[in-house]
């Protein structure tokens, strides 16, 4: 795709949950864009709007006002299938995305469902498992996997469709230190753009070059991760603390 064209853009986006209380906006006047290959950390306190924001590009929630575009396509009933082929979405409870009996069958399911041939599906499944370092687990039953292995399997299920952008909601939650390190290494090896929502600011520091900081549904800061993540007063105003590595 054209590297000058954003893979995702929000323009003056508002969102509210209750039609009877439009004034209670979960997101307010959000305008930003993400370019191919960017690694964006989405941070903010509880209730800041992170999970809500992630659901709009894949139409899990409707855009109330403003526009959201993916690769130049505005999300409509006619474009949503094409949009979802360009974007992978990892739920906070990623285990809920796994429903086939084995790792390989689960990863292959998305490719098969998109109409790819058996040969192409097999090729992409092998490649996706290789990207997340799960080739040796291909025939293992899902229920026998650790939490970290399930997370990586779910990510492979997104990568099999070769998305331009992956949206991740708290990907490091519930992981032990070893699986957390493995996930960081995997994410940093991927070429596609990523938006990673997390309360784990050390994880964001390790995986993202840019940070979007939300507070009360608004963008409080947008800039280089290394700069924003060391602004103690700003983070505390937004109900966050410095990453542990920067605390003294």
UniProtKB/TrEMBL annotation:
One Pfam family from the record = ABC_tran
Gene3D superfamilies membership: P-loop containing nucleotide triphosphate hydrolases
In its UniProt record, a GO molecular function of this protein is: ATPase-coupled transmembrane transporter activity
Kindly state which keywords UniProt assigns to this record, in alphabetical order. ATP-binding, Cell membrane, Membrane, Nucleotide-binding, Translocase, Transport
Q: According to its UniProt record, where is this protein mainly located?
A: membrane
All copies of domain ABC transporter, residue ranges: 10-241
Question: What SMART domains does the annotation carry?
Answer: AAA (SM00382)
Establish whether keyword ATP-binding is in the entry: yes
Q: Its GO CC terms?
A: ATP-binding cassette (ABC) transporter complex
Membrane topology of this protein: Peripheral membrane protein
Q: Where is this chain's protein located in or outside the cell?
A: Cell membrane
Family of this protein: Belongs to the ABC transporter superfamily.
Q: What's the protein called, per UniProt?
A: ABC transporter, ATP-binding protein
Q: Which organism is it from?
A: Anaeroglobus geminatus F0357
């Amino acid at each position: 795709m054209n590297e000058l064209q954003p893979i995702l853009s929000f323009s003056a986006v508002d969102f509210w949950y209750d039609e009877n209380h439009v004034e209670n906006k979960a997101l307010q006047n959000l305008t930003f864009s993400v370019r191919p290959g960017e690694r964006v950390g989405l941070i903010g306190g509880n209730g800041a709007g992170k999970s809500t924001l992630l659901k709009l590009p894949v139409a899990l929630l409707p855009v109330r006002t403003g526009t959201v575009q993916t690769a130049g396509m505005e999300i409509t009933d006619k474009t949503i299938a094409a949009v979802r082929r360009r974007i992978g979405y990892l739920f906070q409870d990623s285990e809920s995305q796994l429903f086939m009996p084995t790792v390989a069958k689960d990863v292959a399911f998305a490719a098969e469902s998109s109409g790819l041939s058996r040969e192409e599906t097999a090729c992409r499944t092998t490649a996706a498992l290789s990207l997340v370092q799960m080739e040796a687990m291909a025939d293992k039953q899902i229920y026998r996997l650790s939490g970290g292995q399930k997370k990586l399997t779910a990510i492979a299920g997104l990568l099999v469709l070769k998305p331009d952008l992956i949206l991740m909601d708290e990907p490091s939650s519930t992981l032990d230190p070893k699986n957390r390190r493995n996930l960081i290494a995997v994410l940093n090896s991927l070429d596609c753009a990523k938006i990673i929502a997390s309360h784990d600011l050390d994880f964001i520091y390790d995986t993202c070059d840019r940070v979007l900081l939300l507070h009360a549904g608004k963008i409080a800061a947008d800039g280089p991760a290394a700069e924003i993540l060391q602004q103690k007063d700003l983070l505390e105003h937004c109900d966050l603390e410095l990453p542990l590595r920067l605390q003294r």
